[in-house]
Design goal:
2 copies of one chain form a homodimer.
Chain A: E1 6-12, H1 16-27, E2 31-37, H2 41-49, E3 55-56, H3 60-64, E4 69-72, H4 79-86, E5 95-98, H5 104-113, E6 124-126, E7 147-150, H6 158-170, E8 174-177, H7 180-206, H8 211-216, H9 220-225, H10 233-242, H11 244-266, H12 270-285
Parallel strand pairs in A: 1-2, 1-4, 2-3, 4-5, 7-8
Antiparallel strand pairs in A: 6-7
Helix pairs in contact in A: 4-5, 7-11
Chain lengths: ~290, ~290
């Protein structure tokens, strides 16, 4: 058997994202040893029992220097601190990637905390379900056929980008390259704003005395529209704040759109309403998730 | 076999709503003869072949007078004209109900067009799928276990209400009574506003040069949030205009809610965002469609 592509990887945060990354690389015979770090000793032990990691790491300094690849798969809120801890120990051949769902903030932390090692960090956002968490939720096929967005930095060398890309490809993912600004603008529009809007609608209903009557007449359209309002409040608080600028831009644009529709409704402009709905229907009905 | 509860019913508009009403009453042995009226002779012939109606009506004056029950199942936009046509011919024992999804406008037409016969009209809104149309989509079980809202008028006698209620009950529906104002306020909040919001989001994306890039990263949250943006533009134009006042009230309230969230985002108020999302999550996660 040939040498694996990555002799040693270190995963910080062995949950759904980190654990699935390790399992997928193992399945592809692309990794030798997997070392895991995390806040919960019980979760790390469980991850070891499940064969996700070979062992839990103890000393960051000792583990990071000879690692081929480090994955930062903690919540984004913990990444700045984590980067500061690993920065002094990153080896000359060590590459770093992450699994954060916002990118400009993570890139900002990288510039601040990784210093001269910034060129070894190739940021990534795997677009894969976030409904479950913990090592137990991890699976070797989580990324199969899914999109992973890489947002390379000017400091990244082409071989560094290519090697991180090949790790995510070994997980079965389809790779897309965007700048971190483009990434955050795109996800503000098609993911973060819809979540905010859905939360806002249900929150508004929850304030009312007749909320039970209202909810008793809610049907399938409401059900689908508000499914994402049952998402994790903590996670979405963090995402909204992390991508605040792009999200605010989208939110203001959307409020303008609603004001236009409000005016059309007020003046009974049937043609404008129909044209708006028609344009939306064309785009939505012609779209299919890939 | 005992006499059916309704010896003769007349259905105006033999599509999903009207056709299913006829089929359900037949299945319950609650109807003798079913006469259908409609704009499309081909659809009426098809409805007859499918056993939905016994025959297509020709002369309104001749058919309505001895009918026990008349169902108005045309689009709401055609109901005023239809009421004007049938008003002079409504028999003393004839009751009228409808299948319109907005009620204040239909009630308004009733007062204008039915004149002294207004007490014989018991308005209804069956909450049942509107994705398909035409007689071919009709089924005897469409209303089974579904909600039908009756919005009785002060002019309705208790026996009139009770008899119309028993017809919808024979279709298998669960009956709820609301005033027409309450009905329209409830559906503006839990149905009409979400449709408008979903259309608005997709319409805004459709205006952009990078819409294909945006849509290529849309995922399952977007899919569910925007499913209703693929609804019929004509139907929703009509519903929005028919329920304009209640919908505008909801829309303005929602824009206020978004402005509050925008301020919270701008000042980075993590606690406010989390509390809003948490309240929404509680209500949504605790709700199940009945």
């Amino acid at each position: 058997m040939s040498e694996p592509q990555f002799k040693k990887i270190v995963v910080f945060g062995v949950g759904l994202i980190g654990g699935s990354f390790a399992l997928a690389l193992r399945k592809a015979n692309a990794v030798g040893e997997v070392v895991g770090f995390g806040r919960s000793a019980a979760n790390l032990q469980h991850a070891q029992e499940l064969g996700i990691i070979d062992r839990a790491g103890g000393d960051i300094a000792a583990e990071v220097g000879d690692a081929d690849l480090v994955l930062l798969a903690t919540p984004v809120g913990q990444m700045a601190e984590l980067m500061a801890k690993i920065a002094p120990h990153i080896g000359v051949h060590t590459l770093i990637t992450d699994g954060g769902s916002t990118k400009s903030d993570v890139v900002g932390y990288g510039y601040k905390k990784l210093g001269s090692k910034i060129g070894q960090f190739v940021p990534a956002h795997p677009i894969a379900g976030a409904e479950q968490s913990g090592a137990a939720a991890a699976g070797a096929d989580l990324y199969a056929g899914k999109k992973v967005v890489l947002t390379p930095l000017p400091e990244n060398s082409p071989p560094a980008i290519s090697r991180v890309q090949s790790a995510w490809e070994a997980c079965g993912a389809n790779i897309h390259l965007l700048s971190h600004e483009e990434h955050d603008a795109v996800f503000a529009a098609v993911s973060h704003l819809p979540h905010l809007l859905s939360f806002a609608l249900v929150h508004d209903l929850a304030q009312r005395d007749n909320r039970e009557l209202l909810m008793s007449f809610a049907a399938s359209g409401f059900r689908d529209f508000t499914r994402i309002a049952a998402s994790s409040p903590e996670m979405w608080r963090d995402i909204c704040l992390a991508n605040r600028e792009a999200l605010l831009k989208e939110l203001h644009r959307y409020i303008d759109e609603l004001s236009t529709m409000s005016s059309a409704l007020e003046r009974g402009d049937a043609a404008k309403l129909e044209q708006t709905f028609h344009t939306a229907r064309e785009l939505r009905a012609g779209w299919s998730e890939k």
